[in-house]
Amino acid sequence: MSDSFFHPVSGFDLPRFAGVPTFMRLPYVPPEHERFGDVDIGLIGVPWDSGTTNRPGPRHGPRQLRDASTMIRAQHQASGIRPFEAVNCADLGDVGPNPADIIDSMTRITAFYDRIKQAGITPLTAGGDHLTSLPVLRALAKDAPVGMVHFDSHTDLFHSYFGGTMYTHGTPFRRAVEEGLLDPKRVVQIGIRGTMYDSEDRDFARAEGIRLIEIEEFHDRGVADVMAEAREIAGDGATYVSYDIDFVDPTFAPGTGTPEVGGPNSYQALQVVRELAGLTIVGADMVEVSPPFDPSGGTAFLGVSIMFELLCVMVGGPAQG
Amino acid sequence: MSDSFFHPVSGFDLPRFAGVPTFMRLPYVPPEHERFGDVDIGLIGVPWDSGTTNRPGPRHGPRQLRDASTMIRAQHQASGIRPFEAVNCADLGDVGPNPADIIDSMTRITAFYDRIKQAGITPLTAGGDHLTSLPVLRALAKDAPVGMVHFDSHTDLFHSYFGGTMYTHGTPFRRAVEEGLLDPKRVVQIGIRGTMYDSEDRDFARAEGIRLIEIEEFHDRGVADVMAEAREIAGDGATYVSYDIDFVDPTFAPGTGTPEVGGPNSYQALQVVRELAGLTIVGADMVEVSPPFDPSGGTAFLGVSIMFELLCVMVGGPAQG
Amino acid sequence: MSDSFFHPVSGFDLPRFAGVPTFMRLPYVPPEHERFGDVDIGLIGVPWDSGTTNRPGPRHGPRQLRDASTMIRAQHQASGIRPFEAVNCADLGDVGPNPADIIDSMTRITAFYDRIKQAGITPLTAGGDHLTSLPVLRALAKDAPVGMVHFDSHTDLFHSYFGGTMYTHGTPFRRAVEEGLLDPKRVVQIGIRGTMYDSEDRDFARAEGIRLIEIEEFHDRGVADVMAEAREIAGDGATYVSYDIDFVDPTFAPGTGTPEVGGPNSYQALQVVRELAGLTIVGADMVEVSPPFDPSGGTAFLGVSIMFELLCVMVGGPAQG
Amino acid sequence: MSDSFFHPVSGFDLPRFAGVPTFMRLPYVPPEHERFGDVDIGLIGVPWDSGTTNRPGPRHGPRQLRDASTMIRAQHQASGIRPFEAVNCADLGDVGPNPADIIDSMTRITAFYDRIKQAGITPLTAGGDHLTSLPVLRALAKDAPVGMVHFDSHTDLFHSYFGGTMYTHGTPFRRAVEEGLLDPKRVVQIGIRGTMYDSEDRDFARAEGIRLIEIEEFHDRGVADVMAEAREIAGDGATYVSYDIDFVDPTFAPGTGTPEVGGPNSYQALQVVRELAGLTIVGADMVEVSPPFDPSGGTAFLGVSIMFELLCVMVGGPAQG
Amino acid sequence: MSDSFFHPVSGFDLPRFAGVPTFMRLPYVPPEHERFGDVDIGLIGVPWDSGTTNRPGPRHGPRQLRDASTMIRAQHQASGIRPFEAVNCADLGDVGPNPADIIDSMTRITAFYDRIKQAGITPLTAGGDHLTSLPVLRALAKDAPVGMVHFDSHTDLFHSYFGGTMYTHGTPFRRAVEEGLLDPKRVVQIGIRGTMYDSEDRDFARAEGIRLIEIEEFHDRGVADVMAEAREIAGDGATYVSYDIDFVDPTFAPGTGTPEVGGPNSYQALQVVRELAGLTIVGADMVEVSPPFDPSGGTAFLGVSIMFELLCVMVGGPAQG
Amino acid sequence: MSDSFFHPVSGFDLPRFAGVPTFMRLPYVPPEHERFGDVDIGLIGVPWDSGTTNRPGPRHGPRQLRDASTMIRAQHQASGIRPFEAVNCADLGDVGPNPADIIDSMTRITAFYDRIKQAGITPLTAGGDHLTSLPVLRALAKDAPVGMVHFDSHTDLFHSYFGGTMYTHGTPFRRAVEEGLLDPKRVVQIGIRGTMYDSEDRDFARAEGIRLIEIEEFHDRGVADVMAEAREIAGDGATYVSYDIDFVDPTFAPGTGTPEVGGPNSYQALQVVRELAGLTIVGADMVEVSPPFDPSGGTAFLGVSIMFELLCVMVGGPAQG
Fold first, then answer.
1. What are phi and psi of C60, to 5 degrees?
2. pLDDT in tens, A206-254
3. Could you tell me which residues come within 8 angstroms of residue C33 by beta carbon, excluding any fewer than 6 positions away?
4. Which stretches of chain E sit within 8 Å of chain D by CB?
5. What is the dihedral of CA A158, A162, A163, A168, to 10 degrees?
6. In this structure, which topology does domain B4-316 adopt according to CATH?
7. Cβ(F47)–Cβ(C18) below 8 Å
8. Which of B290, D20, F48, F194 has CA 20 to 30 A from D121's CA?
9. Residue A150 in 3-state DSSP?
10. E320 — pLDDT class (breaks 50, 70, 90)
11. For chain E, which residues make up each domain, given as ranges?
C-alpha cells in the first residue's frame, strides 16, 4: 500500500484544469527531495529530440504529457487497479538535455537513470525522441542485457544516417544490441510498417534473432494472439517496454514526427499494454510525442492514457481486458 | 406525409454553404410562430455548459451543429427513409439559458420543454453539456418515468462533486432516478470507459438495476448483439435516447470536454442508432459537442450525422443497416 | 530496370524536409524536358476545383501532396517492390487550369493528357476535384471505353446541378458514360454512403449496369471479398482507377470538401489498392484532397501513401498484403 | 425611428452564443416576407467566389460573418448612434449563386439587387469575392454612374486574366467603368500595395481619372487627411463603398485570399469608415472574407465590426471619432 | 535582496522547454510550504470562468500562462531590474474554484487571499475571468477602499445580466464600488471601446466619479500623457492594478472571450505598465486569457510578458522605458 | 537586363497555386545546372535548426517560404523595380544539413557558399535558425571582415550555452567577431528587446564597438532616423544583412522559436529594408521562420515579402518608400 503523501490530487477536490501540472497530479519528488528514497515507480520526462532526422518536436513532449495527464483519474476501469494506492508513485521531474550536444545529453540522461536505478525506482519515461531509450538502457541494463517489447512502426535498427552518423532516433536499438544492453532473442518489435529505404534493418534483425511482427500480421492475427507470442519471447527475465507513439495510426496520434498510415486504433493501442501483465518490467517509455504536430492535444492524451496502462501493468497485477 | 412548408432547402436549389443556417435547413418555427402547432418533430438547441466540471464549450454546440447540418441531405442512404417528407420537422430555435445561474437555467429549459410536450412535439435536442438532459426529462417524464438508452463513456450517475454540488454534467441521471424521471430497470448505458475516481456511480447503478455495458464488452460482442439487448431493456415503453458525443472515440470526436480513448469508430457510432428502430422514442439528445476543442469541425459533422440517424428512427420506420 | 536519372533523392543523402518538393522526390520532367520521352509513369498535378459545388480547396491539393510525398521512401514494406527502380518515374509538373473558366480548363487538361498518352506515359494524377477525371478520360479513353474501379463515398453520376449545370464534381462519370469513355459494365463504385438528395444517380447506375457497393456491404464483406469482385468486374481490359479521398472516413481524411462519416479506416484505404494487383491500369488518380480543411496535413500524407500503393500496382507486380 | 419588429435580440435577454445567427441578430426578412417592404437597410450575403484567381473561400464568408455578428451590440461607442433604432434594418438572406457558372451567378445577383433597389432598400452586402461588386453595381447604378470609395490593397482594374478571361475578382471595376456604372472621376482607391504583375491597371486608372492612394501615402498622411480628400472626390452624388478586407494588414485580417503585408491596423480600419460620414451612400459591401484562412475567426469579427461602422454612417448621422 | 531559494531556474542550466512549469520557473510554495512566510510577491492562479457571459475558457488561463512563462528570463531589458533577485517571488499555486457554484467559488477565493494578505504577501494573480477581481478585492480592500488602474475594453460596471444576475464578469467593479472596496474617485479605466448595449455603465461611472478613458482618447493622446493622468488619479494611496487582456487589440491577444477590435498594440500594452512605476501597488491581476481561443499561444505569452512588467513595477523601482 | 530563362512564371500564365514551388517561381538552378554560372543572385535554402536552444522548427522554413513565395509578383509597388528583369535570379536549391551533427552541417554549408562565392553569385538565404549565418559568413568573409546590418530582437552575441556549448543560435555573431568575419565597428543591431538572462552579450557589444539599437529607441526615433544611422555605420564597404524574423512583433510573425513581444509592425518590417538602398550588400539572409509555430502561414508570407524587398535593394537601385 502506498503512503498518502504519494496520492494524486483528486478532481473532486481540485478541478482537473487547476494546479501546477505534474504527471498524473502526483507529488513532485526530484532526486534532491527527502522522499525520493521512498518512491517505487518514478515518472520522468526526457525533453529531447536531437536524434530526430525529420520533424523535431518531442522535446516539448513531457510538458504536454504532464498537462494532459491531469485528466487521468485514480482507478483502472477494466481491472479495478488503483496504482497510486498500490505503490508509491511520483513525478521525478525532467532530465535536462543539452539541445546542441547529443553526446553530452546522453551522458546526462544515463547519469540520471543510474541514480534512479540505485534508488531502486522503476522508471516510466516520457520522451523525447526514440534515441532517449539508448541512454536509459545504458543505465538499466548496465549489469545484464534485458529483453524488450517494442511497439513502433519502425525498427530503429539502422546502422547510421547521413553518411555515418551513429546516434539518431533510427539507430538506438542497433546500438543497444551492439553494446550488449538488449538480448536480441528476447526482443520483439510490433507494428512495423511504412515505406522503407531498404532492408538493412530487417537483415540485422533476422541475423540477431529479433522478432519483427509487421502490421499485416498484427491485423491478421489480432491483439491477443500477437501479444501471447510477445510475452513468450520476453519470457520471465527483466524486460523493458518501449512504446513509440507512431505505433498507433497517425489519425489517432498525429503528433509525431515520422508517421506511417495504416496502424492500430486507440483501443488496440491500450489492449496491447494490458496484455503485458505478468512480465517483469524494469522500465518503460512513451516516446516521440511531438506537440507541434498535435494542435488539438489528442496525441498527448492518448499518450498518457497508455502511460496509465503501463503503470497498471508495472504495479504487478494483471489487468483484465 | 409532411407539409411542403416543412421541407428543407435543397442543395440543388441553394448551395449548402449559402443561407442562414437552421438545423438541416428546416424552417425556423419558434413557439410564437403560427405553424408551431403543426410540428411533429422539433430540433432544439440548448446552448449551455454550466454543469461542466472540466473543459467548457458545449454552449457553442448548437450553433456549430446547425452550421454543419447544412451538409445533411434529404434521404437516408441505407434505409431510403426521407424523414422530412414523412413528418413535419422544424428548427424550434434555442432555449436561452442563464450562463451564470444553473438553477435558473434548468427552470427555463424545463419550461420550454413543457411547452413542447403540450404541443405534442417530439424533441430532438442539440446540447449543451449532459446536465441538459435533466431539465428536459423533468418535462418529458413529468407524468411517468421513462426508459433510456444512453450512449456515453461515463455513467453520469455520481452523487455530487466538489464537496456537495448536486448539479453537474456528472450527476444528471442520478438526479433523474432520484426524482422518478427514469425507470432504472429500463435504462441501459453503453460504451462506459476511462479511468475512474471510484466505483460509487457503478455501485448506484447496480443497486438500482441500471445495466452498464462497458467498452470491452461492447467491442467483444459487437453492435448488433449489444443493441439487441438494449432494445430488450428499453422494451415497449416510452424511451428517451441520450447520446453523449464522447461515446465515440475522441479521434473521431475530439470536440468534447471529457474524452476517453478507446471508443467506437464513426461507423459504429451510426450503427448503434440504426439499431434503435422500433423503440417508442419520446425524445432524444446529442450532447457535449464542444466547438472550441474541434478546430476542423469534424465532431459537429459527426454529431449532426448521428442526429439524422436519430431522426430517421424517430419517424418510425426501421432503418435497415 | 529504371535509369538512375529517375531515382528519387534518398533521405539518407538529403533529409526529407530539405529540397524543392517534387512528387516523391522524383526528377522534374515537364513535357519540354529532354528526358520526357523516357518516362514510363508520370506523376501529374491538376490543381483545379472549379467543379466543386460545396467547399472549394482541391486546387491546392497537388502542392500539399508534393510536400507530404517527400516522406515516401523507396521500397514497399509488404511486397518489397521498389517502383522507382522498376520503371522510369518522374514528376511531370502541373496542368495549368483557368480558375475562372471550366470549359477552357477541361480543354487544357485533355490537351496535356493527349500529349502524355502519345508519349506512352501512364499517368498517376493528383487532383483537383473529381471533375478532373473527365478531361483525363477524354484523352485516355479517346479510342475505346475503359473500365473503372472507383473508390468514393459518392457516385458522381448525377445529371446536373443548380438547374442544368452539366460540369461539376458530382457529374463526371455521368458525362463519361454518355461520351462513351467508360464501359459501364466494367465499372464498380466502392464505399458509397452518406445522405442523399434522391436516387437519380443510383437509377442511372442500375440502368447502365454500373455496380455499386455501398459502405454497409463493404463493412460486412470485408476488403478481400469486395475487391475480388471488383477485379472480376474490371476484368482484363484497360482500366482506370479513380480514388476520391472522401472514400476514406473523414476522421482519417478530414481534408476534403464533401465528407461522409462511417467510411473505411486508413489500413483498409491501403488494402483496397493492394488488391488491384494484376489489373491493366492505364491511369489512376487521387482527387479531392483539400488542404484548407486539413490543418495538420494528415490527409495529404494519407493521399500520397495511397498514391505510392497505386504506383506499386501500376508497375506491375502484385503487392502481397 | 425604427419599428420594434426590426430590433435585434439583446445579449441581456438571450446570450450572444445562442440562437440562429442572422446578421447582427436582426430579423430574417427575405423578399417573400410580409415586412420586406418596410426595410430601410438590408444586410445581404453573397456567398460566392468563382471570380477568385488564387485561393478560394469567400463563398463561406456570409455564414461566418453572421456568426461573428452576434457579438455586435446596439450602440456605437464613439458616436452613440443606435442604428437599429434609427432605421429598419433586417437580414435579407443570401443570394444563391451557381458555383459552377459565373455568368449565371452574376445574373442571379443582379436580379436580386434589382428587387432590393425597387423596394427602396439600401444594401449592405457581405461577400463573396470582389467580383460580387460588379453585379451589385449593375443593379444599383443601372440608371446613372455612381462614385465609389474603395478600400483595398489591389485596384481590381485589370483587363483580363489567364489569356482573356474577363470576369475575375481582379477585373470588376474595369468592367464597371467600361459599362458606365462608375464615374471614374468620383472614384478613389485607398491602401493599394503589394507586388505587381505590371502597371496596366494603374495606367488605366490614370487614363480614366481614378485616384489611387497607395499605402505609403496613406501611412504618411494619416487617416484624417486621406479621408478628407476621399470625401471630396466622392462629393455629394450617389456613392458606393466597397471594402475589401485585404485593405487591412493580413495580421489583423488573415482570412483572405490575396493578402499583402504592410497595411493599416484595425483601429485605422474602423476610422476610415467613420470618416465617410456625410456621404450619400447608396450601397456598401464587405468582401473577400475567407473563413478557410481564418482559423480563429478574427477576420470575420473585424469584418462585422467594420460592417457596423458602415451601417452607422449609412443611417446618416456623422460618427464622431 | 532575495534568498537564492527563490531564484528561478535559468534557461542556461535547464532549457526553457524542460521542467514542471511553475510561474516564471519560480519555486512552488503553496500556503502549507515551510517557506510561505518568506514570500514577498506571490504569483497565484485562479482558474475560473463561471462569471463569463459569452465564450468560456479563462479557467484554463493559469496553466497556459505558467507554460508560456518559462520563456521569461531574469532581467528587464529596458530598466535592468532583476525582480527575482530584488524580492522573494514564488508560485503559490492555484485557488481551487467550484466550477458549478459561483458563490462558493468566491468564498474560496477570498479565503485564500485573506491568508495571502495576513502573510504580508503582495499577490500577482493570473485569472480567470474578470469576476475574479471581486473576491480578490474583498480580501485586499477589507479594511479600506483602494484605488484602481484598470486596463480593459469594457467598464465591467454593469448592474446585472440576464434579468437580475448580479455576479458576472461584466459586473465586478459595480459590486466592488457598492461594497466599498474601491474608492471611485481613485479609479481610472483605460481603453474602453466596442459596441455597447446601452450607457448604463457609463452613467454609473460618471455618477460615482470614475474616470473613463476611451480608446479614441487613448490613441489621440498617447501612452505617456494618458498614464500621467492615471498616476495622478490613483495618487499615493493603496492601488490595485487590474489588467484585462482584452484591453489589447484582439489581433495581438485573440485568446479572450469578449474581444473588441481597434485596441492598443503589444508595445503599448507593455508601456502602459511601465508607466505605473511609483504607485503603491497592493495587488495586480492579469485576467481573461482564454486558451481555447488562442491556438498559437501568443496571447498567453503576451500575458506573461505583461505580468513580468507588472512584477517589475511591483518590486518598486521605476522601469525606464 | 536579365536573360528570359531566369524570368519567373507569371500568375497570369499559370495560377499562383499551381506548379512545383521554387523561390518566387524562379528556375531551379542547382550548382550542377548548366546555367549556374550565369546566375547573379541566388536564392538558397538552409533547412537547419540544430543550433536552436528552445523551440525547433526552422529546418522547415525554406519549404514553407518557397510555397508562400509563389504569391510574389514581378514588380516592386513603390519603386517600380523589376528585380527578375534587372539581373539573373535563380533558386539554387537547399544545402543539405546533417540534422544530428552541428559541426558536419556547418562544414557542408560553408562548402556550398564557397562555391557560390567562387561563381560570383550573391546569395539571399532562407534559413534555418540563426546559427546559419555563421557558416555562410565563413565563406563570404573568408578574405576580409564585412559589416553587418542585423535586424533581430536578440543580439546573438552570447559566449556559450548549457555549460560551454559554443555553437547555438544565440552565439553566431560572437563567433563571427572572434573569427574575424565581422568588423564590429561596422555592425549595427536593431530591434533588440525581451527579457534577458544577463548583460554579458551587451558588455561584449560595447567592448567591441557594436552598435545596439534597442526597441525603445527604435520606436522613439522612427524607421527613417534609425536607418540613416545604420547606413552610416555600415558605410561603403561590403555589408551583410541578417534578418531574423523575430525582429518583427510576434503577432505579425508568430512562426518563430524565440518571440519577444513589442516589436515593429509589418509595414516597418518592410520599410527598414527599403532604407538599405545604396549599401554594398554581399549577401543577406532571412532566418528563424518556423512553420510549426505558424499554422496560418502568415509568417512565411511576411518572410518572403521581406526577401523580395531585400532582393530589390540587392539589385542596386534605391527603393523609394
1. -90, 0
2. 999 999 999 999 999 999 999 999 999 999 999 999 999 999 999 999 9
3. none
4. 53-55, 161-163, 192-199, 214-216, 219, 249-251, 254, 258-263, 265, 293, 295
5. -40
6. Arginase; Chain A (3.40.800)
7. yes
8. D20
9. strand
10. very low
11. 4-316
